Amino acid sequence: MNRLMTAACAALLALPAMAQEGGVENPSRNEYRGELEGKKVVYVPMNMTSDATLAWARAIENQAEELGYSVETRDPAYNTEVGARAISAAISERPDLIVLQNPDVQSYARLIRQATSQGIKVVQLNMESMTPSDYYVGADWIGIGYIAGREIAKRCKPGEGPSNKVQFVMGVPTSALDMYLINGFKQALDEVGGIEIVSQQAAAYDPTKARSITASVLQQHPDLCGSFGVWDSMDTGTGAAIKEAGKSDQVFVVTSGAGASTACEKIREGIWDMEIAWDARLQGTALNVVISDALQSPMEAGAETRRFFTPNRIITRENMTEGSCWEPEDIL
């Protein structure tokens, strides 16, 4: 025992000298980097043109470069069949991880099961399938819908606004985000009561279609009080139609989005009144943590599902600050 204590004390006394001479290696860091180096990740978003998908790509590419694994991005350009072929090809190549964004709840379900059965881990990003995978990283869509419904209900409940009429502008009815958003939205409206959804139409994430839908709704319901749309890029059309009709002071417009600089610009322009931001910056960080965990973990594909719901932020003209929205160079 005395010899062990003497050796331990000698080692401790040697540490200051070692630090002066150049420090010591961190074995946990070396092991961490060694486990990631040389691994392969395939990234299949819905497209590579939106603020969010570009931000996610930048985040994961930055980490991959730093830690020595590879990321290959395959852009389906909003074509679900192309996306399915990209995932199928990736499965045949046997990467260590596939990161994908589901266009709806069913299209990639079989492929997720196939990848898992072949030992490939899968991360579902921001839009879920009904088939679970190893990880989900993304927004809490029911929570976003609830916040939107709560804020619109404050202004459109009976006796408060110009009417009790509101619209919900959908993207694709079969997507998880649409189904979850309308669920949360209606929960909040039902808690207040007396509010009527006069239109619930799908614009396929297209601002031109959203504009046309909203213009038609305003013709039928000129006393419309509120509007909620699922995605800010699409809702540039919604807000434009309301502004053209001279109803910006009447219709309270809420949207959701990645919180990019364009969101703050549109709020300043009066295109919409509120963005509920799921903040692609935070999602990129969360995604990198998940990728790191997946590539290190000895857990077999499909053994369990872990979910990481990123926080939501409300952005309005009143609370907007210089850091409320992000620029591409902000992505780490």
Topology diagram in text:
Blueprint lengths: L1 H20 L5 H10 L3 E5 L6 H17 L2 E4 L6 H14 L3 E4 L8 H9 L3 E5 L9 E5 L1 H16 L8 E6 L5 H17 L3 E7 L4 H14 L5 E4 L2 H13 L7 E6 L3 H9 L4 E4 L2 H17 L9 E5 L2 E4 L16
Parallel strand pairs: 1-2, 1-3, 3-4, 4-5, 5-11, 6-7, 6-8, 8-9, 9-10
Antiparallel strand pairs: 10-12
Helix pairs in contact: 3-11, 6-7, 8-9
Organism: Salipiger profundus
Family: Belongs to the bacterial solute-binding protein 2 family.
Protein name: Ribose transport system substrate-binding protein
Overview of this protein structure:
- The chain has 332 residues and is α/β, with parallel strands linked by helices.
- It folds into 2 domains: 33-138 and 280-310, 3-Layer(aba) Sandwich (Rossmann fold); 141-277, Response regulator (Rossmann fold), CATH 3.40.50.2300.
- It has 11 helices and 12 strands.
- It has helices at 2-21, 27-36, 51-67, 80-93, 109-117, 141-156, 176-192, 207-220, 232-244, 261-269, 280-296, and strands at 40-44, 70-73, 97-100, 121-125, 135-139, 165-170, 196-202, 226-229, 252-257, 274-277, 306-310, 313-316.
- The strands form 2 sheets. A 6-stranded parallel β-sheet has the order 2-1-3-4-5-11, sandwiched between helices.
- β6 (165-170), α7 and β7 form a beta-alpha-beta unit.
- α8 packs parallel to α9 (232-244).
- The longest helix is centred in the N-terminal third of the chain and has 20 residues, at 2-21.
- The chain starts with a helix and ends in a 16-residue tail after the last strand.
Task: List its traits.
alpha/beta; six-stranded parallel beta sheet; single chain; 2 domains; Rossmann fold; 18% strand
